[in-house]
From TrEMBL:
Protein name (database record): Tubulin tyrosine ligase-like family, member 11
Ranges annotated as spanning the membrane: none
Species for this entry: Cyprinus carpio carpio
Biased amino acid composition, Basic and acidic residues: 64-79, 130-141, 634-643
InterPro entries for the chain: TTL/TTLL_fam
Superkingdom of the source species: Eukaryota
GO biological process: microtubule cytoskeleton organization
Keyword Nucleotide-binding: yes
Coiled-coil intervals: none
SUPFAM superfamilies membership: Glutathione synthetase ATP-binding domain-like (SSF56059)
Amino acid sequence: MSDHYERVKIELQQMKEVENEAAADGEQLSPASVSSIPAEVSFTARRDLSRSSVNGRSRSKSRSKADGHERQVNDKELPDPTAQKSNSSQGQSRVSNEPNLHIKGTARLLKGKTAANGHVETCVRQTDGKCEHHGKEDGSKAAKKRRAVTVDTSKAKTSLEALKMSIRQLKWKEFPIGRRTACDIYWHGVSFHDNENIVSGQVNKFPGMIEMLRKINLSRAVRTMQQLFPEEYNFYPRSWILPEEYQLFSTQIRLLKDNDSTLKPTYIVKPDSGSQGDGIYLIRDPADLRVISGAQIKQAVVQDYIQKPLLIDKLKFDIRLYVLVRSLEPLEIYIAKEGLSRFCTEPYQEPSQKNLSHVFMHLTNYSLNVHSGNFVHSDSCSTGSKRTFSSILYRLASKGVDIKKVWSDIIALVIKTVIALVPELKVYYQADIPPGKPGPTCFQILGFDILLMKNLKPILLEVNANPSMRIEHEHEVSPGVFEYVPSPVDEEVKVGVIRDTLRLMDPAQRKQHATKYINVYKKSNTGGGSPEEAIVVETGSDEKEGMADSLPSLCLKQVFPKYTKQFHYLRVVERIAAIFLRFLGVKGTMRLGPTSFRTFIRNCKLSNSSFSMASADILYIDITRRWAGMLPDSREAGKRPTNHDAIYSTSSLPRPTHNQKAVKKPPIKDTFATIHHSAFPLACSHK
Ligand code: ADP
């Protein structure tokens, strides 16, 4: 085995040398891929290498905030800011002990100033509180010279309206029924696979994102991180996965109640495949779990119910934030400075047996509350049942709340959640778009649903792979007759997010910045600083320069790699995913057998005196058996390789690319998921 390890080391060393040579020849190299992965594992997802810089160069700009509709917040509902400080300092994570993240955009967003250069406002508010969009079109010469970026919108579905508006503002070219030749950007409404024949350009979905963000998988990914970094990941409610953890759930609740009979905890049950509040209900006892025919519990996540949310106007609300994952390798994350707050329509009371079934009191989903007689459609962004998040921050700030702290906690939550998802996303990515094969690069807008607790701590509720980008809402014009009418709040937020996502993905910008980025990286490699520093330098200059003279400032703020240093230590599982992927490359196989698993354990340095290789063998048998029976979509994991796998692992046939529809995706992903969810508790002892 040590021979094998030596061989792997030599091979990796050789690959590194090839990469270094390539860099010297001007080939694009990713600094982050080097900086984030241990020296002996320099895995790089080549497909994403070209996206190695940040294109956003503009400063954040304001949105005017003046509004006469603010109602006074009931003092009881808002926490005392000093109390909030002491609360939030308890149990602070390592990250929050570090200097606070600097949120440039927020302050300006709230002050409502116009940018110093007098250029465009993304949205100005009229005196009646209506939002209106102004894109200053001063027709810069550079923009005119460039070939218009082409966007295939044929699969955009419900995001079409907002997308069309964005393309118009950018003066790009739309292809509503597709195009025979390749487009620069493909906008999919549902998944990466909406259109199977893309071999170049960029697609707005990552393979595997929908799967990873199903409630069970998200819970698993975050729980793995909770086991490794309990304090850092305490923003996610304690969760159990049903039906497999039903016994565990029942036992834990029984013990809790036995210890203190006055306790009346409440739990929220969410079906795995549900969305928009569908099938969600509250319980106070495991016996209340609803069953389906055959007395089997549905696949679901059951969670601690957050009993003390922050209230505004006595109502519970949540926050929808849009997050752009611009690239996985290197990891680049942007957060929209503006989001939406969705309000319940019945005054909140802490859960009791009487009110458990009051959905308008406990669930903030727009799709549910819109059917309540109390739902308020408003043209103002700061009143009604759907408001901008900045209007909430504004209101909190006026009560003395430290909103910078709230924002920095939210940013930390977003970065940590994406870090939890990335390892498996990379495995999906490589399975769908193997390195060296033609295929597009990917980016994706995610919808983060966040609840603020009474003490202002943000709690992650869920992440949506396909957040609604509709900019109109259903309006009942007469009983039973509905029509779609524009929603100013949705338009303000969503068009900005789509337009600025497109700007960041502009191929011309990308190329230009990639070159700059590589130069900085090369410099850093020849003694000019570390690759990590290179990222920081480059990002800073991008933000200063301003992206395009003729457009509003970016509403998307880069948060990663900007804050790389603060979060780097959390990227442990990702390194192991890199080893896993590298290992598959070396062996030319799509899944790990028992021997490979042993080598994998060694490479990850997971074995020691208390965890022998014999234990690794037992673990392998255990997890393959367990996983095989656990999830319907994972049923092949742990079984013998299929003919398909055998063909590709024993011959030199090139693996089909995603567009040939023949890639067998679940096994590779499941094998990794099996290992990392089962084996990572072990890693804790190696921290
Ligand atoms: P869905 O995808 O169906 O919208 P969510 O996880 O977003 O599922 O839950 C729906 C709503 O239920 C949320 O918007 C929130 O109002 C409420 N909710 C979800 N989880 C919790 C929780 N752990 N504590 C309190 N409220 C919650």
